[in-house]
Amino acid sequence: MTTPPPPGLNPYNQPATPVPARRLSVKGVLKGVVGVVVAGVVVYGGYTTWFGGAATADAGDCLHAANTEATAVISVGDPEFEIVDCGTPEAQFKVASRASGTDGTCDSQYQRYTQGGAGRDFTLCLEPLR
């Protein structure tokens, strides 16, 4: 029967090779920073989609549609709304009313915007400001 080697020695009675300390490289640090930034953008995008912009807008709030003209018809997949101050040039729409569900109706002078999913269905009646 063989006895195990004492701590610090391998089976061949040689001292264990020390593990060299890891050196930080610029490339590794940049990869980490880029990873954190990308994760932040994804989290922010998800937050504003489900908990910001149109999802939190109420009657009287003004909205800026990031990817549509103020005169365009709002359709599914359009716009990426953000709430803005009504006195700024970015304000394109004013929320006239908000209703639960995606089957809400709006008077003819308003544009209708609906958003659904995850139990957060709603309809906004939007007054174009320009």
Number of strands: 5
Q: How do the SSEs run, as a string of H and E?
A: HEEEEE
Count of runs of 4 or more consecutive helical residues = 1
Uncertain stretches of 5 or more adjacent residues: none
β-sheet strand percentage: 15-25%
CA-based gyration radius:
28 Å
Tell me what you see in this structure.
This protein is α+β, with helices and mostly antiparallel strands and 130 residues long. The chain is 20% helix and 22% strand. The protein is built from one helix and five strands, in the order αβββββ. Strand 4 and strand 5 (122-128) form a beta hairpin. The chain is elongated, with a radius of gyration of 28 Å. The chain starts with 25 loop residues before the first helix and ends with a strand.
List the helices and strands and how they pair.
Layout: H1 26-51, E1 62-65, E2 81-84, E3 93-100, E4 111-115, E5 122-128
